[in-house]
Amino acid sequence: MSKSQPHKARKRFGQNFLHDAGIIRRIVACIAPKEGQRIVEIGPGKGALTEGIISVTKRMDVVELDRDLIPILRVNLFRYPDLVVHEADAMKFDFSTLTDQGNIRVVGNLPYNISTPLIFHLLSFNNHIDDMHFMLQKEVVDRLAARPGDSLYGRLSVMAQYFCQVDNLFIVGPESFDPPPKVDSAIVRMTPHKTMPYVAHNLKQLEDSVRIGFQQRRKTLRNNYKGVLSDGDFEQLGIDPSLRPERLDVKDFVNIANHISKKD
């Protein structure tokens, strides 16, 4: 099978094509696809990872924005008639339309320039997704998986871990891509909780509470929540208001959001 069709990576789409066969095999091993599973790939590019998966599952859905890549993808994967290509922007795609036969699994080498908003978009479908495996900029994966007290722990960490178990799997160097990016990449597994460990009564309030908490991360909770929570509120919550936001875990932020909702 030839993958020699010319296609210049487009900066506006954040394209970096994975070509390292050893890394591709390692990613597929982490995903561990099984025949009959409905796996959806975002940004399949020329199909390097797609082939490793669909050779096992026999069918696959892919979401690709670059219409010039689609004929290349179809040629490279012509042996797989059950490949369904959705020419669409993943940021606007309704992933629930693919769940008519059950939950889906999502994979992708996500464009670095939109990875964070795209993850937040996917989290809105968390009830329809069994797991997600992504190639992302290493710093984004470090932020997703960061624990309380880590320097990279912040809004993305809290919201991702509210919805999912996050596992930082392994690093991928720039040499594995064409063109090589200027930064290291990493593979992350995000597994939506089957039963939520902590339940926010109002998701918008949780998002707002986390944003307020980290708006000035070097300030104390007392300063950041001034006019929203009093020392008496913090006492009821069992949280020290002199702490900085990165010391709180997901449960603390959920409790803060629910306390504010109750007050309102």
Automatic annotation (TrEMBL):
<dbReference type="InterPro" id="IPR001737">
    <property type="entry name" value="KsgA/Erm"/>
</dbReference>
<dbReference type="GO" id="GO:0005829">
    <property type="term" value="C:cytosol"/>
</dbReference>
<dbReference type="InterPro" id="IPR020598">
    <property type="entry name" value="rRNA_Ade_methylase_Trfase_N"/>
</dbReference>
<keyword id="KW-0489">Methyltransferase</keyword>
<protein>
    <recommendedName>
        <fullName>Ribosomal RNA small subunit methyltransferase A</fullName>
        <ecNumber>2.1.1.182</ecNumber>
    </recommendedName>
</protein>
<keyword id="KW-0698">rRNA processing</keyword>
<feature type="domain" description="Ribosomal RNA adenine methylase transferase N-terminal">
    <location>
        <begin position="23"/>
        <end position="194"/>
    </location>
</feature>
<feature type="binding site">
    <location>
        <position position="18"/>
    </location>
    <ligand>
        <name>S-adenosyl-L-methionine</name>
    </ligand>
</feature>
<feature type="binding site">
    <location>
        <position position="109"/>
    </location>
    <ligand>
        <name>S-adenosyl-L-methionine</name>
    </ligand>
</feature>
<keyword id="KW-0694">RNA-binding</keyword>
<dbReference type="GO" id="GO:0052908">
    <property type="term" value="F:16S rRNA (adenine(1518)-N(6)/adenine(1519)-N(6))-dimethyltransferase activity"/>
</dbReference>
<dbReference type="InterPro" id="IPR020596">
    <property type="entry name" value="rRNA_Ade_Mease_Trfase_CS"/>
</dbReference>
<dbReference type="Pfam" id="PF00398">
    <property type="entry name" value="RrnaAD"/>
</dbReference>
<comment type="function">
    <text>Specifically dimethylates two adjacent adenosines (A1518 and A1519) in the loop of a conserved hairpin near the 3'-end of 16S rRNA in the 30S particle. May play a critical role in biogenesis of 30S subunits.</text>
</comment>
<dbReference type="GO" id="GO:0003723">
    <property type="term" value="F:RNA binding"/>
</dbReference>
<feature type="binding site">
    <location>
        <position position="43"/>
    </location>
    <ligand>
        <name>S-adenosyl-L-methionine</name>
    </ligand>
</feature>
<dbReference type="InterPro" id="IPR011530">
    <property type="entry name" value="rRNA_adenine_dimethylase"/>
</dbReference>
<feature type="binding site">
    <location>
        <position position="89"/>
    </location>
    <ligand>
        <name>S-adenosyl-L-methionine</name>
    </ligand>
</feature>
<dbReference type="InterPro" id="IPR029063">
    <property type="entry name" value="SAM-dependent_MTases_sf"/>
</dbReference>
<comment type="similarity">
    <text>Belongs to the class I-like SAM-binding methyltransferase superfamily. rRNA adenine N(6)-methyltransferase family. RsmA subfamily.</text>
</comment>
<dbReference type="InterPro" id="IPR023165">
    <property type="entry name" value="rRNA_Ade_diMease-like_C"/>
</dbReference>
<keyword id="KW-0808">Transferase</keyword>
<keyword id="KW-0949">S-adenosyl-L-methionine</keyword>
<feature type="binding site">
    <location>
        <position position="64"/>
    </location>
    <ligand>
        <name>S-adenosyl-L-methionine</name>
    </ligand>
</feature>
<feature type="binding site">
    <location>
        <position position="16"/>
    </location>
    <ligand>
        <name>S-adenosyl-L-methionine</name>
    </ligand>
</feature>
<keyword id="KW-0963">Cytoplasm</keyword>
